[in-house]
Design the sequence.
């Protein structure tokens, strides 16, 4: 009885900047497990949009992260035109399955515990305040992405890793290229290689003269090949740049467009941890979703997912599922939004999530306190949206105060 | 009721500590789960259930009774 067509790629249109594509919503309503066409070879794989189903796929390691054949969930040059084997690069543990994944991830989990992140809070607050001082002193209107949302998480991850912050422009441009749908495959691969080489060069220095940072610690680990370390450093550096930055940028936009929610939050800053979870749920910035490949034939809720089938997971679909969240399309900073899948689920669930939470709590709290008159400096329709990027958000957010 | 944690399965995401800091901690080395209180008080049972549900790796479970 379904009237929704098989989608060609993940639907990414955004009539409302904060809501997922209406097609995605219709799909979840009619069939939370749907077929979907992947590129470049028109492979008919699967798109999973229901909350329960998304969690199940992510928790099931028969859905492999080590995609031997990578296909693109969007029709763009984003990935190479020929279906070809992608060797998983050393250290890139997000594209590995256990036990390789486990071995590498364990080298990092100790650094990102809830406790360790608490210790970092004071430093994060300093970085936040420093950027807000600069924002306050700059001419109005100002771009909140450039002045605040991007530099804060960049500086935090650079310090944690031991990457000189002054060199950020170099890899910020490359990381941007890497994640843009319009980048040609060769250029994308080149950007990846350049960031990796940069990290490897830095690691060489740190091995000789270790300093007090994560990269130095990793270089002292005899169990890690240098190339693996390069891969790990690359992942952390890129992840630390584009994710939290977009939550801060798009999150501020969302709050400014929901003044009653902003009011509630200003009246009761204690609500901030809840508000952060709710913004994570409501905005679901990983709008391209996660990808898996069936490593064997899998019977899945009445469907046969064949070995080799590509599976695309919709974070936004799951986070707006009314079977999980009441009134899911309403932003409500007072609700308990735990159980959202914005950090994923399963063994690959985001390693840096506790750091991200701290940056958002401190960042939003200080921003709202320091700029009680914060408002958009352009019409909301003029805010450039990142529909063309693997991680959704705003390219710019012109604000005044 | 007893909380069981499989440290081999744990991926150190810290959701348990975030959900119920009285019941869980993570070790300093690898960030793997430590159960502080294997037998939760009646008023901690809801938090324990939530932690089990939110654990991404399936490392946590509850033994009823
Ligand atoms: S939530 Fe699960 S995976 Fe994460 S630290 Fe706790 S037990 Fe380990």
Sequence:
């Amino acid at each position: 009885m379904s009237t929704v067509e098989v989608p060609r790629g993940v639907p990414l249109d955004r009539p409302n900047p904060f809501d997922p594509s209406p097609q995605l919503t219709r799909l979840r309503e009619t069939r939370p497990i749907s077929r979907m066409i992947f590129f470049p070879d028109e492979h008919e794989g699967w798109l999973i949009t229901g909350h329960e189903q998304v969690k199940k796929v992510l928790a099931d390691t028969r859905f492999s992260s080590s995609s031997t054949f990578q296909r693109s969930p969007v029709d763009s040059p984003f990935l190479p035109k020929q279906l070809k084997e992608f060797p998983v690069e050393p250290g890139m543990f997000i594209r590995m399955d256990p036990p390789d994944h486990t071995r590498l991830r364990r080298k990092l989990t100790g650094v990102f515990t809830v406790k360790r992140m608490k210790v970092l809070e004071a430093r994060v607050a300093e970085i936040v305040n420093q950027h807000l001082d600069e924002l306050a002193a700059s001419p109005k209107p100002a771009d909140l992405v450039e002045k605040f949302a991007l530099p804060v998480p960049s500086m935090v991850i650079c310090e944690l890793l031991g990457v000189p912050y002054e060199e950020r422009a170099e890899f910020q441009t490359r990381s941007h290229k890497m994640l843009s749908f319009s980048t040609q495959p060769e250029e994308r691969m080149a950007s990846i290689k350049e960031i990796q080489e940069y990290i490897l060069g830095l690691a060489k220095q740190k091995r000789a003269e270790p300093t007090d940072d994560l990269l130095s610690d990793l270089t002292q680990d005899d169990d890690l090949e240098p190339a693996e370390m390069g891969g790990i450093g690359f992942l952390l550096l890129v992840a630390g740049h584009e994710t939290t930055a977009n939550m801060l940028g798009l999150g501020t936009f969302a709050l400014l467009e929901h003044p009653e929610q902003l009011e509630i939050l200003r009246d009761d800053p204690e609500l901030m941890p809840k508000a952060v979870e709710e913004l994570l749920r409501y905005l679901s910035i990983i709008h391209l979703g996660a990808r898996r490949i069936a490593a064997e034939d899998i019977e899945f809720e009445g469907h046969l997912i064949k070995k080799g089938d590509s599976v695309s997971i919709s974070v936004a679909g799951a986070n707006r599922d009314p079977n999980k969240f009441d009134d899911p399309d309403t932003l409500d900073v007072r609700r308990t939004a735990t159980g959202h899948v914005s950090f994923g689920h399963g063994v690959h669930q985001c390693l840096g999530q506790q750091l991200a939470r701290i940056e958002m709590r401190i960042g939003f709290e200080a921003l709202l306190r320091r700029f009680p008159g914060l408002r958009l400096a352009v019409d909301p329709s003029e805010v450039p949206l990142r529909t063309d990027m693997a991680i959704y958000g705003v390219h710019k957010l012109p604000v005044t105060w | 009721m007893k909380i069981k944690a499989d440290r081999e399965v744990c991926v150190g995401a810290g959701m348990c500590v975030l959900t119920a800091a009285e019941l869980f901690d993570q070790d300093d080395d690898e960030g793997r789960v430590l159960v502080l209180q294997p037998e939760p008080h009646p008023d901690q049972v809801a938090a324990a259930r939530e932690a089990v549900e939110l654990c991404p790796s399936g490392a946590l479970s509850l033994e009823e009774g």
About this structure: Chain B has one domain: 2-63. Strands of chain B lie at 2-5, 24-26, 33-35, 60-63. Chain B has a mean pLDDT of 94.
